[in-house]
């Protein structure tokens, strides 16, 4: 009998509410049992997990065994310790703190995009801040590992080991990027566990959850670009997104959680060369043009976000940082000349896709894996467009604090200097559809 004595790639994600936490981990051999022991002080709680065999689509058809446990009926704002166990062999001991309930508190996010293995300059800084209890959520806005499937999914294994000092302690939430596409997103779908806060079901491509005074939405921009897997998911996601936004805008819901914040990988706007977001009518922003006499566009995201008053949209993909003025349909809708982010009249877009450049090689467990994809960063066009407020090519990540129902602070941190180089405070005395504000 071969026992799985090494538990690895341990990472957390949110459950359906603040009283739940999901723990996902992997073993490289099959085990007879998988469970988590946990508790506040003593490890007196035991929850049995669900195990599944994942077969990577690469030539070797490597088998990875994924284990999931949902801890339920947790107390809010409490620290819990836990260990993952397979076949009586336990992992190291880890801990997490559950979220506070209600809307009268200030959630803190670290936001990264396009993070791989080598030259991951942002990760040590974030890990240090996690150890200092600085964050409630880590959000990875697509393009993980470069790539999860590479080298028969050994790159994915190494990446999840790399983020464990962060992801085993703070919920590590994700959105899919274009680099997750291989084998119909199978590595991404199998390795992560994103739970929709309303249905309680797993959906790594689009889901939403509530935290403090905010409603958070994660969705896939990749459905628009990888229609070889079918186009029905564009409509399915769009209808889900519309219904989710409609419910978030019910008076009782918008009053309790006025901030609506979205995460998607490919931006609607950017001022980078040779990329789809430079196109006036790109797929994410405008949707799919119909062949009819009315030139109808279907499933465009921008009109939906404007109609339902999305406050902030985060993007990645471009390996650069760009902050936009409040913008809709390529027009700037600042709150005022002197205070553009006070009562803005359109969503604020932030592109934070430069946690790391792609890499050529890395070392893991004394073996050398070569990475064939070395995609360079996208250069900025020479003259910024009117809606571009700031743009920087540098390694870094974003901090976001949702201070209260009216104030939200976004900091951009340089990973090379370890300092904040851009900061804005968005102040909104009214949250809701922008048509009411403009009209």
TrEMBL record:
Protein family membership: Belongs to the metallophosphoesterase superfamily. Purple acid phosphatase family.
Record CDD domains: MPP_PAPs
Catalytic activity of the protein: a phosphate monoester + H2O = an alcohol + phosphate
Annotated Purple acid phosphatase C-terminal domain residues: 372-423
Species of provenance: Dinothrombium tinctorium
EC number of the protein: 3.1.3.2
Class of this enzyme: hydrolase
Record flagged with keyword Iron-sulfur: no
Domain Calcineurin-like phosphoesterase: 108-321
Protein's name in the database: Purple acid phosphatase
Coiled-coil positions: none
């Amino acid at each position: 009998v071969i026992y799985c004595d090494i538990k690895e790639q341990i990472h957390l994600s949110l459950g359906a509410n603040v009283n739940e936490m999901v723990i996902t981990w992997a073993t490289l051999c099959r085990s007879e049992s998988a469970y988590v022991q946990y508790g506040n002080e003593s490890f007196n709680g035991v929850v049995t997990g669900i195990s599944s065999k994942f077969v990577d689509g690469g030539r070797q058809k490597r088998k990875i065994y994924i284990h999931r446990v949902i801890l339920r009926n947790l107390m809010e704002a409490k620290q819990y310790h836990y260990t993952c166990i397979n076949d009586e062999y336990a992992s190291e001991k880890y801990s997490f703190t559950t979220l506070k309930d209600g809307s009268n508190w200030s959630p803190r996010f670290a936001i990264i995009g396009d993070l791989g293995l080598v030259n991951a300059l942002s990760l040590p800084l974030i890990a240090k801040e996690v150890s200092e209890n600085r964050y409630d959520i880590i959000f990875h806005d697509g393009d993980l590992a470069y790539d999860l499937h590479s080298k028969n999914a050994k790159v994915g294994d190494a990446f999840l080991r790399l983020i464990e000092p962060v992801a085993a302690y703070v919920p590590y939430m994700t959105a899919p990027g274009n680099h997750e596409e291989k084998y119909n997103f199978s590595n991404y779908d199998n390795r992560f566990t994103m739970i929709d806060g309303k249905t309680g079901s797993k959906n790594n491509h689009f889901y939403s959850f509530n935290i403090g005074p905010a409603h958070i939405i994660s969705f896939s921009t990749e459905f628009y670009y990888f229609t070889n897997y079918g186009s029905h998911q564009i409509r399915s996601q769009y209808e889900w997104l519309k219904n989710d936004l409609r419910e978030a805008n019910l008076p009782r819901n918008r009053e309790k959680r006025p901030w609506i914040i979205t995460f998607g990988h490919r931006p609607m706007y950017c001022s980078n060369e040779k990329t789809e977001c430079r196109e006036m009518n790109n797929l994410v922003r405008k949707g799919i043009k119909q062949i009819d006499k009315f030139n109808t566009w279907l499933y465009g995201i921008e009109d939906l976000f404007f109609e339902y008053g999305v406050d902030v949209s985060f993007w990645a993909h471009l390996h650069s940082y760009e902050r936009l003025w409040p913008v809709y349909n390529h027009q700037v809708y600042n709150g005022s000349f002197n205070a553009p982010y006070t009562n803005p009249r359109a969503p604020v877009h932030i592109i934070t896709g430069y946690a790391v450049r792609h890499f050529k090689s890395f070392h893991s467990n004394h073996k050398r894996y070569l990475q064939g994809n070395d995609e360079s960063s996208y250069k900025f066009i020479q003259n910024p467009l009117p809606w571009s407020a700031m743009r920087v090519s540098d390694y870094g990540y974003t901090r976001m604090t949702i201070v209260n129902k009216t104030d939200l602070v976004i900091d951009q941190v340089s990973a090379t200097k370890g300092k904040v180089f851009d900061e804005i405070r968005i102040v909104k005395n009214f949250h809701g559809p922008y048509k009411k504000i403009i009209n």
